[in-house]
Amino acid sequence: MTDLPSARRRMVERQLRRRGIEDExxxxxxxxxxxxxxxxxxxxxxxxxxxxLPIGEEQTISQPWIVAAICQALELEGxxxxxxxxxxxxxxxxxxxxxxxxxxxxxxHQPLSREAAAVLDSLGVRNVEIVVGDGSLGVPAxxxxxxxxxxxxxxxxxxxxxxxxxAAGRLVIPISAGRDxxxxxxxxxxxxxxxxxxLGPCRFVPLIGAxxxxx
Length: 215
Fold this sequence. Notes:
The chain has 6 helices and 9 strands, in the order ααββαβαβαββαβββ. With 215 residues, it is an alpha/beta fold. Helix 1 runs antiparallel to helix 2 (24-32).
């Protein structure tokens, strides 16, 4: 039987801190959220493996480093309204909930959204609301967002999401670079333009939707 709390501490030190995650708030949040709670029972012993894992509906729970890298790039201080595109298991939402004031998370698969909501409720996470819909279109009724985290690769940053950013808002999204690679990308909205920074290679499931890929 894996000692999961010890495995979580090792994950923070070896997979995150040693590989460039420096934001202490992000490291603390990753050390607090039990990743195993968001996995099927048969996979819980692998909760802190340095890899993505399947969660059903042909979706995955992201590699811990990717979750931490996205959170660090968003530069959250605690007062923000965050949009998450791709609730998945709910794990990233639980981490974001410790870093921001409120998280709106949108998921296109209703079964995943129900399961994620149940796990978040069981853990006492009260500042996440889950919406079922097309994540590539965001949630305009709740905009503007201080930060947006996207957990699926898009052909380009959806204009709908850029338009839902607040002034100085940050959007982190994987951009498809072909069949074998994606590029994790930070977009920061300024008064008159959007700055773009490549954060490095990654691999995600495709973002399906009106401003993403066809199903």
